[in-house]
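User: Could you walk me through two proteins back to back? I'd like the raw sequence and the structure tokens for each, with a short line separating them so I can tell where one ends and the next begins.

Assistant: Of course. Protein one, sequence then structure:
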Amino acid sequence: MRRTDPKIQLLRRVGLRDETDRELAELAPLVDEVEFDVGDVLMEEGRTAFEAFIIVEGTASVSIDAHHIATLGPGEMVGEMALLDHSPRSATVTAATPMRLLAMDPRSFASLLRRPTIGWRVAAELAQRLRRAEGAPTFDDRRASGAQA
């Protein structure tokens, strides 16, 4: 009986359900499983970026200038902005609960982005964050209010 790589199972859990086992097997070497305890800082505002994460379990608190701005949870990516534009971290991210994440370095992150489904997902997530930051309506807002397209 063939065992499935645990990283493939984790990749499926974070939303990569449409990829085949073979595609996920190609992605698995690009990520490392890491854990953080409550209060651990994943990244600090103003610092250089060396990795991005996909949250598998737990939640993280995002703050700018020590003001809480968001809570992130399973399936969400964090740290990708600084890897995309090679700028310092725009926020501090702290583990609010014990966390399990998939970490990727800049080269692995770039390899993941070359996959159309993942690239589109990252772009869509960034667009939603921008809309929330601007106070603009999002699809989730419209759906919750019953608005029609």
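----
Protein two, same layout:
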Amino acid sequence: MFRGGEPLTMQRLRSPIYVIVNHPAPRSAWDVARASLEGGAGLLQFRAKGPLGDDEAAALRTLAGESHRMGVPLLINDSVDLAREVGAAGVHVGQSDAPIALAREALGSQAIIGMTTPTVELAQQAEADGASYVAVGAMYPSPTKPEKPVLGPDRLRAVVDTVSLPVCAIGGITVSWVPELLAAGASLLAVISAVSAADDLYRAVRDLVAACDRVPR
């Protein structure tokens, strides 16, 4: 039984593609986010690598509003305060960030709260604590976080078989891995460089969404 909130209902999302937008980064976070919205991503995450200036916070607030109007939840990585400040749909936290209960108290019962859970035991705990979804990775070697150990689809399957929450696969995901990960039970596929490093941001998102659509579910 959850102590707050409900699991993320996948029927609310228009696709399993979950684009994580880094800021600052070589590609404009705002360009990546808008291409993701236009290309059909189902979920966005904004990951700030430092404090935001007033103009950046205003731009993020605008993005949260645009995302809401398009029915695409925007989550903030790590910072519950920033999520609340800009009106985001929720937050994604790691094991060393704010506990789920505190994030839920700050953001409300309807907020989407995801947690990074590299083990089955941590995923089970996150479910008991009221997470909306859990994330497992790295699935494959990741150019964004090369230091992360590769857990692979076998760990994904183990978590999927253990919890009733949607499970997000992350780490090194490209179009070619979409069928394998969806077959392993992933509900969400989190991508970073597969979009942000592409020559055509919009086409990269469209190709990922189309790959999901081709997999029977």
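The radius of gyration is 16 Å.

Let me know if you want the two compared in more detail.
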